[in-house]
Amino acid sequence: MARFYVLLGPPGAGKGTQAKVIAEKYGLVHISSGDLFRENLKNQTELGKLAQGFMTRGELVPDDVTIAMVRDRISRPDCKKGALLDGFPRTPAQADALSVMLKEFNSKVELVPLIDVPTQELIERLSGRWTCRAQGHVFHEKFNPPKKAGICDEDGSELYQREDDKKATVENRIKVYTEQTAPLIEYYSSRKILVKIDGTKSIGDVSKELLAAIEKA
Length: 217
Ligand code: AMP
Prior knowledge:
Elements: E1 3-7, H1 15-26, E2 29-32, H2 33-42, H3 46-57, H4 63-74, E3 82-86, H5 92-104, E4 109-116, H6 119-127, E5 129-132, E6 138-140, E7 159-160, H7 167-181, H8 183-189, E8 194-198, H9 203-216
Parallel strand pairs: 1-3, 1-4, 2-3, 4-8
Antiparallel strand pairs: 5-6, 5-7
Bound molecules: adenosine monophosphate (AMP).
């Protein structure tokens, strides 16, 4: 049966970084809804144009649009073995829709690791974050600096600061998380598939904890 995992956590918790590690280890597809929106924005698709305003303000793109985009991605053949979802679901309505779409594939969400980081730390993390233009590899000027400033260690492409990693937007993204996404902690906890991971540790230690939780599930 296909294995689907949902990485939950506030913006800046390290979901993207960890998702890449886990996806590689288990040969799973990494689906980041934020990356899908950014790709659409870059290519100026209708979807990208629609999402742009919400993203710049740090708000959520409406559920129907987001759900359709993820459903389309999950339906592709490369997800037959499963996928690691990063940034989706972000509302209870999205979580319900995910469960319905996975049922269609005779599957379900196996485990929901919650990468937990206190709010004060998130602001510092996000505002020092640099993202690789080519593939979205993430660095931090203080906690995880690239070998050469402004250049991605992995693929040599340019690093840039995401528009929504600027301070005012960061604060709004955290508020939106608390109000709209944090209810998913109880949602998945009551379904007995949530596991809390201490996201304040080093990247390597968080990976170890995550992999151990997945092995145990
Ligand atoms: P991220 O890279 O996950 O922080 O996502 C960047 C932005 O894309 C978010 O601030 C939202 O505007 C939008 N976005 C990403 N995923 C979702 C989602 N599941 N639901 C609604 N909006 C989303």
